[in-house]
Amino acid sequence: MSFLLETDRGCVTAPAGTGKTQLLAEAVATYRGSRPILVLTHTNAGVAAMRRRLKTLQVDQRYFQISTLDGLALRLVKMFPQRSCHQFDANAERIDYPAVREAMVKLLSGHAIDDVLKANFARILVDEYQDCDVVQHTIVCNLAELFPTCVLGDPLQQIFTFRGNTLPTWDVVQGHFHAHHTLNTPWRWLRAETPEFGNWLLGIRSALLNRQRIDLSQAPRANVEYIPSGNEEAIKGKLLALGREPGPSLIIGNSMVVGSRHQLGRITPGASIVEPVDLRDLTTFARDLDAQLSLGQAAGNSVLGIVHQFAQSVMTALPSQRELQSRIASIRSHRNINPPSPLESQAILLEDQPSYIAISGLLKLFHEIPSARVFRPTVFRTAIDAIAIVVTGHAPNLLAAVAEKRERMRHTSPELPRCAIGSTLLLKGLESEKALITDANDMNTRHLYVALTRASKKVVVCATSPHLPLRV
């Protein structure tokens, strides 16, 4: 803990589960300087989680400030637009954060605000440093010219290398932050009374860092189970068990195939999907609905189709669109023997008088079907809440309301379901008692390590071979 507050340029390598976040929080809790420590991380959810931890430790707020790296850059670039040479587009749907980062580099490189920064902060701590891209790394290196700085992270959890996102290697990081410290106590597994599991996970790091395969048959049998990918019956049994058993669990699906994770949600009672923060599906739904509702009554049939398709994407056991349309046609032509159900009446109302109120009513009636189960609760609840914002006149359209809800959610840590389904990208940083890796075949070294280290008691790995990763 003292290392974080004593080093001028330090780097802490922190394997998963070795107490990095608690170490950082306790270091801030012992600080008593005249200017605050600036704690930086990557996500608003991470900021919220750190705030809660410091609140639990009863740390006086005058001793720290917490921000995301992008949040700090955005704030300073907005304060000094001329010196950063950046103009914001007021009509843009979203902020161009890569451009903001480049502007932040320009601002810091000019040294015009050095005195301003020095007057406000005493030291900088950067969490989850393995997630920094090269521009963010340049920003932190510039800040380190002004302040004692310590960065914390784990090169084996550096998995955000996609969409052209270039990350500095850990050797490069340690070249700039040359005082090194490594955490080596598996606190997550000591607390769970599974020390053999924790020590095995620490022991395989050397092989994985050297791009070598590990042998799951050599892992502690009580904690690591291997199932061949072709044994579908066994895998389905594990999925059903995780959905029913007590205690938190994670189902880790394919990072690149969203639909496969949604299918896992459909077939696993008791499980819910962890959603990406951009809520892309909901944004598309809102944009399509706004466009159709602007056309008035003539768009009633299209609106019903959009709503039904959305409902099917978030919950199970709904009537098919063909069944619903057939029933509506029968009711309209008075050929029906059974009277319309409340759901059918609402669907007809939506076709005849398309409105946000009618949409909300139909979604709620879909939810009330006895056999229905919402497996994407975040998307469903956000849709209902966003529609309510429009209905009450607090947003001009559904797209604006969804954007408002999405931005609020970025600043909170999501409440995880007991059994959560996600990818390594969505579940990194989380932990549970049990985890099931449904397809380890396509995982590289880092994704495999992140997946293996989520569970404190037991992990089940499904792959074609126990010698992993297949992609070294």
Describe this structure in words.
This protein is of the alpha/beta class and 472 residues long. The chain has 23 helices and 14 strands. A 6-stranded parallel beta sheet has the order 3-2-4-5-1-6, with helices on both faces. The protein has a 6-stranded parallel beta sheet with strand order 8-13-12-9-11-10. It has a two-stranded antiparallel sheet with strand order 7-14. Helix 4 (69-79) packs across helix 6. The longest helix is centred in the middle third of the chain and has 15 residues, at 300-314. It is globular and about 80 Å long. The model has no long low-confidence stretch (mean pLDDT 93).
Q: What topology does this entry show?
A:
Blueprint: H1 2-6, E1 9-13, H2 20-30, E2 37-41, H3 44-56, E3 64-68, H4 69-79, H5 81-84, H6 97-109, H7 114-120, E4 123-126, H8 134-144, E5 149-153, H9 170-176, E6 179-182, H10 187-191, H11 195-203, H12 205-209, E7 214-215, E8 224-228, H13 232-244, E9 249-252, H14 258-267, E10 271-273, H15 280-293, H16 300-314, H17 321-332, H18 342-352, H19 356-367, H20 377-391, H21 398-410, E11 419-422, H22 424-427, E12 432-437, H23 445-452, E13 455-463, E14 467-468
